[in-house]
Design brief:
Elements: H1 2-8, H2 17-37, H3 73-80, H4 85-106, H5 117-128, H6 135-142, H7 146-154, H8 161-169, H9 175-183, H10 189-205, H11 210-225, H12 234-246, H13 254-264, H14 274-281, H15 297-303, E1 373-380, E2 388-394, H16 399-410, E3 418-421, E4 427-429, E5 443-445, H17 451-454, E6 461-466, E7 472-482, E8 493-498, H18 509-521, H19 526-535, H20 546-554
Parallel strand pairs: 4-5
Antiparallel strand pairs: 1-2, 1-7, 2-8, 3-4, 3-6, 6-7
Helix pairs in contact: 1-2, 4-5, 4-6, 5-8, 8-10, 8-15, 9-10, 9-11, 10-11, 10-12, 11-12, 13-14, 16-20
């Protein structure tokens, strides 16, 4: 790993953000190699592992498209409480193995031929009834490739359900099984890291397990001490294990860890301080690496709901007196001058609803040299009246997450691709559905770059483009840079805004401005009537539902 050795070999502390980015790009390449080309797990015949499923759960093994009669989760949980344990274990295992079988028989890696919901319910059942006997089936979901993980967990925003369940149900007797999983070759390295993190958090649930977990990690570390393979992601996995050793205060492993840092030049991604952080924190670090909100698979499942909280949001005062330099544009395009039409608008809603949406939604943060609190001003270029939003984000927020925050703050529903355009026409693709696509040839992955890569000091700006057809350009300006107070939440939040986000697919900013002109000068025109019918409402260009947008943005923090 020459790039990582060269970059992270700087032990004088002068590691820049660019150094970290180069290392992460190289590690991402290694991770892709380990999870794609070097993935060689040969799964058993899952179809032969499917057993009896009780009536209340039988709809979960139905491959038909009509699931209207499916009982709710609470009803299934209540009914399953009446079943004996062995029946319930068989049912949970069977549901998981049934859908693993369907996945491999479907020949459809994008998930169109499988139903993700039953596996989620099976995990909830295993957790609710502490079915540690189901651990082999749960681990089988973690043995699948990256495509499976993205369909069954990532796309549903339920990442971490399996490790959270393992944390809740595993016992000391299960440590050998979990160690064998972590030592396996040919499976998804990040899945191993998730399971190891779950084990390292067990002492927070049962403090008496701490010595056993420390020994478990020490033994696992010894497996990698003299024989790691960088080509299959062992370097990243090794640092994950060391990270867990710190958070179990496994001091016995410290000499071995120091030797490993010297031998393998570990990348210092999970442990930014490297070996010095190991020496400093291994005696006093917090126990466990799973966050509080990830302690329960049920919590993850509930938080994945796309409905927004109804809690009150305190709007902060905002001074909108600063001047805005509108860019020149040609608005002289001729439109057909249609006669007024007395259309019937009784069936229309009085105004539009908030429809902001972003795939995935969770905020993702990257290592930065020094964390700052950024206040960003977002203005939709050429909009009159000016459409603007103000958001507060940590400087470590990745660009793809910043794109989600802008979409939710504005009210776009992410029907189209998007990107940031930096200096020199460099572009940073931020679209979940097509992360490699861009209008420019030098497109970079927005998941690998933090906001601080594009914006460093007050007054810096960049451009965010949404919908390469209509080309909605947003000026993103760094309005303020501040330090976080001790104990202050490092969250993404919407703090201000004005005027309605244009509707998707309405034709771009100039077409939208033309429609606003019709609303003022020809409110009964046939063309405007068609626009209202298309929208299903009387459009209000000044309506900005601050509370709904703020709640949507705040959900990124969960």
């Amino acid at each position: 790993m020459p790039v990582v050795r060269e970059i992270m070999g700087k032990r004088d502390g002068n590691i820049t953000d660019d150094d970290v980015l180069k290392a992460m790009e190289h590690l991402d390449m290694v991770a892709n190699a380990s999870t794609m080309s070097d993935y060689f797990y040969e799964h058993p015949d899952y179809g032969q592992m499917v057993g009896e499923v009780p009536d209340i759960l039988r709809p979960l093994v139905d491959t038909g498209e009509d699931h209207d009669g499916l009982p709710g989760v609470d009803e299934m949980m209540d009914s399953c409480s009446q079943l004996d344990r062995s029946t319930l274990v068989t049912a949970v295992d069977s549901i998981i193995y049934f859908w693993l079988d369907q996945w491999h028989k479907g020949n459809d890696e994008n998930g169109d031929s499988v139903w993700t919901y039953p596996i989620h319910v099976a995990i909830l059942l295993a957790e609710r009834f502490a079915l540690r006997e189901c651990l082999p089936a749960l681990l089988e979901t973690e043995r699948q490739n990256r495509d499976f993980a993205e369909v069954f967990f990532d796309e549903c925003n339920m990442v971490g359900m399996v490790p959270a369940c393992i944390y809740r149900i595993a016992t000391a007797d299960d440590l050998p099984l979990l160690a064998a999983f972590a030592r396996e070759r040919g499976i998804y390295s990040f899945s191993k890291a998730e399971v190891i993190a779950a084990v390292s958090t067990l002492p927070r649930r049962e403090p008496e397990l701490l010595p056993m977990v420390q020994q478990w990690l020490f033994d696992l570390l010894a497996v990698f001490a003299d024989d790691i393979d960088p080509a299959v992601g062992d370097v990243m996995l090794l640092e994950a294990i060391i990270h867990c050793c710190i958070h179990t205060r496994c001091e016995a492993a410290k000499p071995m860890i120091i030797r490993m840092y010297s031998k393998y030049k570990l990348p210092d991604i999970l442990i930014p301080g490297g070996v010095n952080e190991v020496r400093k924190n291994i005696k006093k670090a917090d126990i466990g690496v799973l966050k509080e909100e990830l302690d329960s698979a049920e919590t993850i499942w509930k938080n994945a709901d796309t409905s927004w909280d109804d809690e009150d949001y305190d709007d902060e005062d905002y001074d909108d007196d600063e001047d805005y330099d509108d860019e020149d544009y040609d608005d002289d395009e001729d439109y057909e001058d249609e006669e007024d039409d007395d259309f019937d608008d009784d069936e229309l809603a009085p105004r539009q609803e908030y429809c902001g949406y972003a795939y995935g939604g969770k905020a993702v943060f990257l290592p930065v040299q020094k964390l700052k609190k950024y206040t960003l001003r977002i203005e939709l270029k050429d909009s009159k009246p000016l459409i603007w939003r103000e958001i507060e984000v940590p400087s470590s927020l990745c660009l793809s997450s910043l794109a989600k925050a802008i979409l939710l703050a504005m009210g776009w529903d992410e029907d189209h691709l998007h990107q940031f355009i930096g200096k020199g026409r460099d572009s940073y693709s931020t679209s979940v559905n097509d992360p490699g696509d861009s209008l420019f040839s030098q497109s970079k992955d927005g998941n690998r770059y933090a906001v601080s890569h594009l914006l460093q000091k007050k007054g810096d700006s960049t451009v965010f483009e949404y919908d390469y057809g209509d080309s909605w350009y947003h000026a993103v300006k760094l309005k303020d840079v501040a330090e976080y107070d001790d104990g202050e939440d490092r969250t993404v939040k919407l703090t201000g805004g004005a005027n309605a986000c244009p509707p998707d697919d309405c034709g771009g900013i100039h077409r939208y401005r033309y429609l606003l002109e019709l609303m003022q000068k020809k409110p009964r025109s046939r063309e405007l009537s068609g626009f209202y019918d298309w929208m299903g409402c009387k459009w209000d260009p000044e309506y900005f539902p601050m509370k709904e947008a703020a709640n949507a943005v705040s959900m990124m923090n969960k």
